[in-house]
Design brief:
By secondary structure, the chain is an alpha/beta fold. It is built from 10 helices and 8 strands. It has a single domain, classed as TIM Barrel, CATH 3.20.20.150. The model has no long low-confidence stretch (mean pLDDT 98).
């Protein structure tokens, strides 16, 4: 297995330093973001590309286009801006997240959004990574639903799944689709007090022996079924972001996962 680094694992580390840190941790693949930290708003795409090339890392994705399945308002223009930025920065893909506000979005709307997004990706040589969100209020909770929409949109040339261990656990989905999956996000929840239905991004920490999300079992299942992509660390908890030495913490989590998978 191989690991990748999502910038949210160390959002206080400046971009070039983050790339260098990833290399020291043995990762040559990284993800940048348009939220925390907002690389898109603070870095020119050409400078991002140059920094990645200097560090010897590949930018897997920009995270994330939201809500990709509500194709109206400013979303089409936002999608084009993100795709342009990704292409110029040398990124390979855009992460695409569904509406997560308690309002349902019909299957036909998801298909239509994918059909509209596909030519934007094709024209720029990008992949769209569809990431179901397992929260109870999510409009697209499972990979099965995402697959059905991609199938109907005839979009497998530009779309793949993003398996997130946190969202997989929250959704209750038990099926894995390794050959449809291009990227996996890993994070753990260790707080024993929070019920699964109440788990939020703020609970997501690095994977260790106290993990409640069955990360190790999920990783084994993906690898055992033929998944060949990277596992990218994506913790959202402030306690991780505030660590004085995020590199050491990531190194420990890498060692734990490696030793037990």
């Amino acid at each position: 297995m191989r690991f990748a680094m999502n910038h949210i694992a160390a959002p206080k580390v400046a971009l070039p330093d983050f790339f260098a840190m990833a290399r020291r941790l043995g990762a040559t693949e990284v993800e940048i973001r348009n939220d925390l930290p907002d690389v898109m708003a603070t870095w020119k795409p050409g400078d991002v590309k140059a920094a990645a090339e200097a560090a010897g890392v590949t930018i897997l994705s920009i995270n994330a286009l939201y809500p990709f399945n509500v194709w109206k308002g400013d979303l089409p223009a936002k999608a084009e801006r993100m795709a342009d930025y990704a292409a110029r920065a040398g990124a390979k893909a855009l992460v695409m997240c569904p509406l997560n506000e308690g309002r349902p979005v019909g299957h036909s709307e998801v298909v239509a959004a994918l059909e509209s997004m596909a030519p934007i990706l094709r024209e720029r040589g990008l992949m769209g990574l569809v990431e179901p969100l397992g929260f109870p209020i999510s409009s697209l909770r499972t990979k099965r639903e995402a697959i059905a929409a991609i199938e109907e949109a005839a979009g497998w040339d530009v779309f793949r799944l993003l398996h997130d261990t946190f969202h997989h656990h929250l959704s209750g989905e038990t099926e894995f689709y390794p050959r449809r999956t291009a990227l996996a996000h890993i994070s753990g929840v260790t707080d024993p007090r929070v019920a699964v239905k109440d788990m939020l991004d703020a609970h997501r920490v690095l994977v260790d022996a106290n993990d409640r999300l069955e990360n190790l079992a999920q990783i084994r299942a993906l690898l055992g079924a033929g998944y060949e992509g990277p596992f990218s660390f994506e913790p959202f908890a402030a306690e991780v972001h505030d660590l004085p030495d995020p590199e050491a913490a990531l190194r420990d989590s890498i060692a734990f996962v490696t030793a037990h998978v």
